[in-house]
Task: inverse folding
């Protein structure tokens, strides 16, 4: 069960992280707040990727 939760949380974090990055890149003049939002989004997306891998590892261990 934990593997499913990790995979779902990972997918959500990746999606929200990408959305933050997209929101920061709306075009035109980029502010410091946009840079901060983009960095936050990149970090959240990376966190999601790690959560997804964690879920896959748990699944592989459970399959043994």
Result:
């Amino acid at each position: 069960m934990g593997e499913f939760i990790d995979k779902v949380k990972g997918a959500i974090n990746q999606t929200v992280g990408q959305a933050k990055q997209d929101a920061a890149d709306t075009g035109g003049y980029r502010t410091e707040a946009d840079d901060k939002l983009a960095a936050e989004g990149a970090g959240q997306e990376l966190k999601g990727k790690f959560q997804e891998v964690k879920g896959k590892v748990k699944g592989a261990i459970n399959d043994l």
